[in-house]
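Hi R.,

Quick one: here's the TlpA family protein disulfide reductase sequence you asked about.
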Amino acid sequence: MIYKKILPIAVIIFTISTGFAQKLTTGAWRGALTTSSAEQIPFNFEVTDNGGKQQIDIINGSEHFKVTDITTKGDSVFIKMPLFDSEFKLKRNANGLAGSWIKHGATSDVSTPFKATPGTKWRFFEKPAKPQFNIDGRWSAVFGEGDGKESTVGEFKQNGQTVTGTFLTTTGDYRFLEGLVAGDSLYLSCFDGGHAYLFKAKINDDKTITNGKFFSGLTGTDVWTAVKDPDAKLPDAYSLTALKPGYKKLDFSFTDLQGNKVSPSDDKYKGKVVIVQILGSWCPNCMDETAYMVDYYKKYQSKGVEVIGLAYERTKDRARSERTVKQLQQRFNIPYPLLITGYTPAKDETAQSLPALAKVVGFPTTIIIDKKGDVRKIHTGFSGPATGEHYTEFISEFEKLTDDLLAEK
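And here's the predicted structure, written out as C-alpha cells:
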C-alpha cells in the first residue's frame, strides 16, 4: 500500500436484517459514489433473499467480502463495514437508495454522496459505443507529473467491451478493477468497502493510452498515461528496504490484543523461522496478504514457522485500535498474534518504532527472520490475487524461501 494513494475487495456480500421494514428489491442494482468534482464512481451489486434475510453481492471481478452488521429502521438502511471503519447511511426513495458512505478517520470523517438504482445491470453506460481498440495485455503506466511521477504496471484482460485487471505498484496493487472500452475511451472502477476508485482515459491506438484521470474517494485525483509493453516490470520487492548498517536482528516488544507483551526474542520464537508482518486494518493490500498469510501459517507452523503481525493504526487511541484490529482478526480468523504498536502509519513513526530498519516504504512490509534470529529478507508491498501470475509467482518464491530457511542447520 503506497502512502500517497491508498491502493487497491471486489464482491461484497451484505446480509440485511430487515425486521418489519420493507425489503429491498431483489435483483441487479447499480450503485454510484459522487466525488467532489462531480465524477461518479460506479459499481454493481445484486440483492437476493437468503433464509429470511437479504443478501447483497457487490461485484468487482471475482472477490467476495461478507458484511453482516446491517440494520433497517423504517425507510432507513444502515450498513456498517467489518473492515476499514466505514459505513453507509441510506434512505429508500422512489428511485432506490440515497445517502452517504462515511469513512471514519483518526480525527474526522469523510462523507461521500451515494445512490443506488434497482433493475440496473450496466456499470458505466446502458448502451456503450462499440470498442475501437483492445487493451488486453501488459502496460507500462505512469501516474502523476514532475517529481511526483510513479511508474506502475497495468495488467488488463478484455473480452468484447468488458475489461478487468489492475495496476501494480512497488507497494501493492489497485486490486480488482472492472469496466469497459467504449469507442476510444477506457473506464474502470471498483469499490472495496474502504476505498473507491475510478480510472478514465483515451485509447489512442493498441499501444498508447493518454489523458488518463484517476479519482479516489471524495477528493483524490491524479493523471496517468500508459504504453503497451509486454516486458514491463517493477523493481524487485526484496530490494526496496533493508536493515541499517551494523544491524542483523530486529528487536521490538509490543502488546497483543489480550495485553500480553510479545517480542521475537521470546522463547516461543527461538530456533524458528519468524515472519513479521507490518500491516494496518485500513490497508486493502494488507487484507490480501493477511488472507494468504493465514493459509501459509496453517501450512508451515507445524514445520517450525511463526508469524507476528504488527498493527499500525491511524489513531493512537488504544481502545479504537483494538476494535479495528479485532475486526481484522475475526474477519480472517487469524491464528497468530496481532500486536498494537501504538504508532501510526506515518513514515517517521513507523521507522521510529523499528529503529533497526533503514526505512519503511509502504504497507504491507514483510520481514523474514531465520532460525538464528537474523533478518534475511524484507519484502515491500503485496501483489494480491487480482494480479494473476504475479500473485502465484510470489507464493512460489516466498514458500521456496521458507523451505530453504527451514532446511538450514
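The domain at 137-228 is CATH 2.40.128.120 (Lipocalin).

Cheers,
M.
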